[in-house]
User: What shape does this take?
Amino acid sequence: MALPRLVPPNVCNDASTTPFALFGQPATCNALQPYCGNFAVSCSVASTCPFTCGACSSHEFCDDSVRSSQQILLNGQPATCSDLAPFCNHVQHGFLIRSLCGETCGCGFCPPPYPSPPPSPPLAPACSNGLPVDLVLVLDHSGSMRVWQAAVLEWVRELILQFDFGESAARVGLVEFNQQAIILSNLTQNAGSALAALANAQVGRAPLSAC
Assistant: This one.
């Protein structure tokens, strides 16, 4: 059986209180945002705070095809999320199954599937035309951006790929912020370094416990 939905069927609101604590104090959904993707508690946090976690529409919780379950075997064969639905609450493997099959296991609130988006437009010609350009991109990683985070990061990646990098051409730097600003990459003339910094972006976490 899939986990029961913890929010009304047509509403995606965070709970006013949560069963979690941070540093010994009751934790709000805003404080729990960094734990929405935490392996051990993502399903519980997303079910309690679906709006903050982006569990109302994001691929992370609402599209089982994105987070493949193929690393789990059932009767010796790779299992789909549909195969694993009866084991969402399994004592030993439930955490893993819920983290991989959020939609099937009822993590958060997932509305009916949206129609497929139109294909992306072709990339524009390379920017800078050999002229020096210094560009610093500042990325918002706060809870309010979680629903759009994947799309924003993909947009930034495509933007970086459009520049001519070089000593006399483009240099790109990356900064992310939530409660604090973190420099992901100083100005660099190496596109690979900028893309690697973008791929390695992470949000810091504090110890989390259940009340």
